[in-house]
Design a protein that fits this description.
Blueprint (H helix, E strand, L loop, with lengths): L7 E10 L5 E6 L2 H9 L14 E10 H12 L3 H15 L3
Antiparallel strand pairs: 1-2, 1-3
């Protein structure tokens, strides 16, 4: 079936920083392709005219539902909460 929804695999929740210093949160099954799509001016309407974007946070999930739930939760965060999440992510990913 070509219309079957993928429920298991690799999914990411991500936050990008826009050139106007705002944040956008989304989820995807192909993070590299999604960032390229955003930077090409396609994808989310919110990001049109706000690119290029920079990936500042990502977290991998193995189930689509978990990634969607995390995206909804992060979208409700305040800017300060998102910046705290990004800071922890950067600290954890810059370890030698």
């Amino acid at each position: 079936m070509s219309g079957k929804i993928q429920r298991e695999g690799r999914f990411w929740v991500y936050i990008v920083r826009c050139k106007n210093d705002t944040y956008y949160t989304g989820y995807t099954s192909d993070i590299e392709q999604r960032i390229a799509l955003h930077n090409s001016g396609h994808g989310a309407k919110y990001l049109r005219g706000r690119g290029p974007v920079t990936l500042v946070f990502s977290k991998e999930y193995h189930y689509c539902k978990n990634a969607l739930d995390a995206e909804r939760k992060i979208k409700k965060y305040t800017r300060f909460q998102k910046e705290e999440l990004i800071a922890v992510y950067e600290r954890n990913n810059n370890k030698s």
